[in-house]
Amino acid sequence: MGFLENFEKGLERIVTGAFSKTFKSELQPIEIASAIRAEMDSKASIVSRDRILAPNTFSVRLSAADFQRMRALGANLVAELTTLSQNHAQKQGFQFGAALDIKLVEDGSLNLGQIVVASTTEEIAVTWGPQIELDGRIYSLKASRTSVGRDSSADIQVDDSGLSRKHFEILWDGAKAGIRDLGSTNGTKVDGRAMTESPLQNESQISAGRSVFTFRIVASKVSHE
């Protein structure tokens, strides 16, 4: 295990709400990035379904000397810290309720090498809605019943000769989803199984004709409280 890996594991063991650690030497940007990451991990929380909400605002307090050194690096430092934090959130499956905001703050009470990170999470209310994806194209399902087929009479028309005019429909009651085959010629499968009617789960695969649709339940509306 290399020095940086040992260093980062040491940071993770110290987290107790706000991150605080005193180093014997001047602070380095990698230490700020690790501190933000540790704070993000410690404050992330499950909201609903597959959504894990992480703090979006980070206040990084530094000693006067460290703050001046970091400020000399300019806006590129904050931009780099933001990118690293976003990449970490993506790897962990975290989402933010608002735009990620990182601020460096001078704190004369801190000693050289000391860093304190605090974070807040914007309160949000989430409305969930269904969608299907086919070959990178996303169709949001707004109605309680949505038909899919090759004909223009279907709510979602797909250019696939293997589909019936109206092949299947997806039902949504605001919380749960289901699918019903509409007497199609070639039938419909959900996750590889032929069916007439079936519940749908997040990431279910719907095979109809030559097409494979991915069903998802996503945050269709996010409002700030």
Question: What does this protein structure show overall?
Answer:
The protein has 225 residues and is α+β, with helices and mostly antiparallel strands. It is built from 4 helices and 18 strands. It has helices at residues 3-14, 29-43, 64-72, 75-92, and strands at 19-22, 45-48, 51-54, 57-62, 94-96, 101-106, 114-120, 124-134, 137-140, 145-149, 156-157, 168-172, 177-181, 188-190, 193-195, 197-200, 204-208, 211-224. The strands form 4 sheets. It has a 6-stranded antiparallel beta sheet with strand order 9-8-18-17-14-15, with no helix packed on it. Strand 14 (188-190) and strand 15 (193-195) form a beta hairpin. Helix 2 (29-43) runs parallel beside helix 4 (75-92). It is elongated and about 75 Å long. The protein starts with a helix and ends with a strand. Mean pLDDT is 83; it is low at 1-23.
What is shown here, in short?
With 225 residues, this protein is an alpha+beta fold. 24% of the residues lie in helices and 42% in strands.
Shape: elongated
Low-confidence stretches: 1-23
Radius of gyration: 24 Å
Order of helices and strands: HEHEEEHHEEEEEEEEEEEEEE
Strand content: 35-45%
| Overall average pLDDT | 83
Number of helices: 4
**Main structural class:** alpha+beta
The first-to-last residue Cα distance is 45 Å
**Biggest sheet, spatial arrangement of strands:** 9-8-18-17-14-15
Q: What is the count of β-strands?
A: 18
